[in-house]
Amino acid sequence: MLHYSQINKVQKGRLPMIQTKDYQELYTYLECSPKHQELLRQLNVANEMTLSRISHELKNALTLISGSTQLLSIRHPEIKDFKEWRTLLYDIDSAEQLLDELSSYNHSGSLTVNTFHFGNFLKHLCLSFAASLSDSDTEFTSRISEEMGVFRGDRVKLLEAFLNILRNAADAVYGGKILLEALRTSDKIEVIITDNGCGMEPEQLEHIFEPFATFKENGTGIGLAISERIIHAHGGDISVKSKLSEGTVFVVSLPIYQNGYEKTANQSSKMCKIVNTAACKPEVQA
Hints:
By secondary structure, this protein is of the alpha/beta class. The chain folds into two domains: 31-106, Orthogonal Bundle (Helix Hairpins), CATH 1.10.287; 111-285, Histidine kinase-like ATPase, C-terminal domain (Heat Shock Protein 90, 2-Layer Sandwich), CATH 3.30.565. The protein has nine helices and twelve strands. It has helices at 4-11, 20-30, 34-75, 83-106, 118-132, 155-173, 202-205, 223-233, 261-268; strands at 2-3, 110-112, 114-117, 139-144, 150-153, 177-184, 188-195, 213-214, 237-243, 247-255, 273-276, 284-285. Helix 5 (118-132) runs parallel beside helix 6 (155-173) and helix 6 (155-173) packs antiparallel against helix 8.
């Protein structure tokens, strides 16, 4: 992962790194013709397969290491009292978490589409997030319009996307306030997440959605990158504004498709892959 303190080195040319805007320019160029679009599709598939293989092999290695540590703790229970032992277990857990998030990022552009009530979805999201704050002093408030209606999308992926944003806010406020607002217009759903936390510098905002660029000491730098891919896969947009020592505002806009979801979403997203469209007359989920 790339911490903010390392980004300055990257910008000075000490560590070469392809940024998100470089990928966007590449995708824009490749989308100019059907031939290039097929090349783009093949590149995406190849990248996903390579990443999956690497993650799989690393998980296998970690499984063996975890098994060995368990065996050691059984045969030598006194080892549990060693500080280095606790550090080792923490490092193994961190590596497993990173691989899980890497796998999630790799599959964040693949959607299983269903129709569900977006208002009920947001209420469930808010209850889950509020429960996670029960042991903190952070104040969380939600204002959800009663006219949210139904939405066609991947409920599970969207839940992950919004939770990543909310958790990012929780890490920034340290006992402050977080507000989630949601409204629906004729052609889109808009969700606004505001916090009065530490805020970010302009240099940080430039890299906020880049994988492995993290501004937190123990962060992986993948959560917001996953959120961006999921939102884009739905044909939506995500933006952020922030001011140091004042707070941050994330705005997520999701287009509402009445017909032909798959065609429109694919045109709007550079990385979307629909894996299940849940039939022509989908059942509405609560």
